[in-house]
Amino acid sequence: MKYPAPGSPEELTAYAKLQAQVPELFHQLSKDTRIPQTVVIVPSLSMDPRELSKITGVYHYEERMLVNLMLLRQPRTRLIYVTSQQLDPTVVDYYLALLPGVPTSHARSRLVMLHCNDRSNQPLSKKILARPRLIDRIRREIRTPARAHMVCFNSTDLERSLSVRLGIPLNSVDPALNDLGTKSGCREVFRAAGVNLPFGFERVKSAHEIAECLAEIKRRDPAARRAVVKLNEGFSGEGNALFYYGDLDAGDGPETLVAKIEDRLPTLKFEAPQETWQGFLEKYEEMEGVVEAFVEGEKKESPSAQCRVNAVGEAQVISTHDQVLGGPSGQVFLGCTFPAHQDYRMEIQESGALVAEELARRGVIGRFGIDYVSVKQPDGTYEHHAIEVNLRKGGTTHPFLTLKFLTAGNYNMEDGLFYAPSGRPKYYFATDTLQEERYKGLRAEDLVDISVYHGLHFHGPSERGVVFHLIGALSEFGKLGVVSIGDNLQQARFLYKQTIQVLDEETGPDWHSSE
């Protein structure tokens, strides 16, 4: 079959025609979730490969969307899940076994797993586009094209081309709007939405402009100790760097201060340990970025709001989290707790709603997150600074979906809590970055056995327990993702600590088989 050229007017027209089907499909499924539908899941991290290479075991992040296998709870839903390499069947069975009220055999009969047999450092969507026979296979597996759509991690020109070639719409933001999710674009959205953001500059594109912006921040606040320089398309904070002013004096003449700062730019402190100034600058000149004041404070928190704009343009906040950050200066996402702290979660929900409504006005659909830095004031209140929009599924997406699918509960806008059908509020701690050298060599079946033996596995009747993800990264990298669900945050954290203790004991020097 001959397809329109990527980015051509013909492709854009075909894509627009497909997207016009989404509202009607949304209405049909809203009325009856039992109607036949096909969901094609393409968990491609379609981002700059140079940035993705900073993430340990990044190709295993395609497993984070396995939580969508929970859609098989709907008895006439068919899933086609495509990955770069074949997933361990034990990992797939692990998720199917979590399905409440659905026999595993029934769910498996409606699941098609396909792969490219390609572990190269390229986005999955690009690999699929290079394999016309695989595209043809996916098309054959779509039984009802009129009731089918594609789900992805983030949408780019690659996903648009793939949508057209498969002949099904993409349930995600139009790639033409992706600039709204860059570090520069989101600052402009924050201003339009009327939410507070750090003083700074966007659309910066050279070393000299970086120096000019840093100088202006220093002149505006002579006491400023540091500022942040960000790549427009960094991932999980790995594209950020800190500039320390040191002994630089705001009283220097404008040209002198800019020149001194430009000379010191190679001393930027990068969040990614393998980053260099030359490599950072090359990417900066290519994709542009922002320079903004570092938000200081004795007591700071890093909450986020997760939002959704549905297919008919209705915006809503679906959760709040407190992020767990690490890295050299605390800008790298490590995990999260749900919900955000009671002292400010309703404020974050309100601010997130303003941003979501602004994005909806601009035509955005799909899920996204908004990150904040919140500083406690002397009177006990918090001042919130909107930092960035992740216009894609992120590190807080799959933990919340895990909770929602497992418990069939709902987020309550009145108090910002999530309630299971039992009426109990539910909490969780989640991370993508549990990693230890000693965990290397543990296979998926080993992890499942350990979890069941020690009673960690999520238990439906009690609505408590641990759910693992990124399981494929365990044997090779000693890396694992965890969502620990409890009746309160203390219980959720205890379950996580218990998990670490068990894994350490099971991989320690004193381990021996219990059989």
Structural commentary:
This protein starts with 8 loop residues before the first helix and ends in a 9-residue tail after the last helix. With 515 residues, the protein is α+β, with helices and mostly antiparallel strands. Strands 10, 11, 12, 13, 14, 15, 16, 17, 18, 19 and 20 form an eleven-stranded antiparallel β-sheet that branches. Strands 5-9-6-7-8 form a five-stranded antiparallel β-sheet, sandwiched between helices. Strands 3-2-1-4 form a four-stranded parallel β-sheet, with helices on one face. The radius of gyration is 23 Å and the shape is globular. The longest helix has 18 residues, at 489-506. The protein folds into three domains: 9-172, Rossmann fold (3-Layer(aba) Sandwich); 199-293, no CATH class; 300-506, ATP-grasp fold, B domain (D-amino Acid Aminotransferase, Chain A, domain 1), CATH 3.30.470.20. The chain has helices spanning 9-19, 22-31, 49-52, 89-96, 104-108, 124-129, 132-141, 157-166, 183-193, 207-220, 254-264, 277-287, 345-361, 397-407, 444-453, 474-477, 489-506, and strands spanning 37-42, 77-83, 111-115, 148-152, 200-204, 226-231, 240-244, 269-270, 289-293, 300-301, 303-309, 315-326, 332-338, 366-376, 382-390, 410-412, 417-419, 425-435, 465-469, 479-486.
Descriptive key words:
D-amino Acid Aminotransferase, Chain A, domain 1, Rossmann fold, eleven-stranded antiparallel β-sheet, 17 helices, alpha+beta, 515 residues, globular, 3 domains
